[in-house]
Amino acid sequence: MSKELDRYGIPNVLITAMTTLAKNVGANRIVAGTKIPHPCGDPTVSPKRDREIGMLLLGKSFELLQKRVEAPVIVQAV
Amino acid sequence: MKLEMQTYKVTDARFGPKTCLCGDQLEIAAEALKAALLEDPIFEDAWIELVKPGENTRIIHVADVLEPRLKLTGGTAYAGTAAPVAKLGWGITRAMEGVTVMTSCQFPLRRHGGLNVVRDAALDMSGPASGLTPFSEKINIVCCLKLKPDLDEDQYEESVRLAGAKAARFVGETMRDAEPNETRTFTLDGAKPGLPNVALLYQVHAVGLNLNSFFYGMPFSNLLPILVHPNEILDGALVDGNWSHPAVKTPTWYHTNSRLVHELYDRHGKTLNFVGFVLYRGRFEEMQGKVRCANQVVNTAQMLHADGAVVSWEGAGNAFIETMLVVKGCEQAGIKAALLTFEHGGLNGVDEPLFYSEAEADAIVSSGTYEREIVLPPVSRVVGGELFVINPEEGGIPLDARGTIELHDRLQLYCAANEYGFTKNSCADF
Fold first, then answer.
1. Do A17 and B358 touch (CB under 8 A)?
2. Best mutation target, B115, B287, B328, to test chain A (most A CBs within 10 A)
3. Is the distance from CB of B388 to CB of B398 less than 8 angstroms?
4. Quick one: B41 exposed, middle or buried, by C-beta within 10 A (0-12, 13-18, 19+)?
5. What is the C-alpha to C-alpha distance for residues B375 and B429, in angstroms, rounded to an integer?
6. Residues B358, A32: C-beta atoms closer than 8 Å
7. Torsion (CA) B93, B99, B100, B101 in degrees, nearest 10
8. Domain ranges of chain A
9. B70: nearest Cα among B41, B49, B94, B34
10. Per residue in A32-74, pLDDT tens?
11. Do A21 and B115 lie within an 8 Å CB cutoff?
12. I need a surface site. Which of B19, B265, B298, B347 has the fewest CB within 10 A?
């Protein structure tokens, strides 16, 4: 999906814990999520901390979305 | 460490007043085996069925398959599984060829969805799906187990797993006074200088409840790679507890009869030196865990002075990332790695063949695919229950197990992915 969006000129960020997989299949803006079953948070910590992680990931994603990238970029957010 | 494996060929089996082996004929006292299984209070009921090669029979709710075993010296067969832990892989073991012990149990569908949901599994003895496992050519002693309601899932999992080992020992006991047909000694002695050193890097699925492998009874879920003697695996140290992914699972029988181990032993001291067996799990939930695990596998192979490695895996999906990282790491460390895997390819075989790949993986043996439609024809006998439940992710759709069953893929056919090369599935260039 990320690749197809790029093809149509729609910038997008893929949040995933499987970062090398995302890179290998051709995603260009990648933010490393927490874990495969829950990339956008962490249900094992307190709800407050879970939300902070989610906000951090989103923040990093919006930053990356605005950047021009020449090659695939992986950003470690947490 | 030397393991003497004495094999007994059994060509027919029947129920009788006592459990014994007369030549190549096995007699089973079904009531005594049932009573032994019902010692576990988790089971409300149990019944034993005999299923023979060529029968027009479908076995459903299949959990594990084990080989009847007896150890004369060197501990107990499947030590650590409903028996005290003992050092396996040495002494004399007796194995019954031509017969399996199979557990069949319908688990309650408490969760809808989730990766570890228990999935029903079918095994056809004849028809188009019969070639998917070697078990359609065996005499199967099916232990049908009925669970008491309202108990915890982990109790169910453990009891079904232990029941398989208990039944395998119960039947194996008949070999105590019999004369073996064949004896083979397994030892890593006899390595020759100048031959390439080859390690077997063996990845299992061990993630959590209903999707686990057990090493001497211990769940492998949190373990980093360990070096084990291949004889321990042949002797039953590794027991299956995967009731969730029937197509891509490894029944205990596959571990204890591992063709990869046998083939490496066949070549040991002749064309290569078999230097060790690295046991590890895949499907860590984040990249750091996957990289950490793969690095330790490669480190171990390097410490074994491996020149080459045979890499196998169990499961599907992201578990393959560890496998590929191991292949990549080996190649980067100068260890030639050959990988055995099934392919995806989708319904028509034109989709991506692998979930994940690295450029360094340049020697891959394909064992076919499970992503093909299949129609199971009606059968005259069903063992294990009456209803075959598909699509547990959608709450479960019960089908008449006796009738025609049309499947879009083979996810619920027992061992359909053929991850260890046990079936007639393969691939062809065209």
1. no
2. B287
3. yes
4. exposed
5. 25
6. no
7. -90
8. 2-75
9. B94
10. 999 999 999 999 999 999 999 999 999 999 999 999 999 999 9
11. no
12. B347
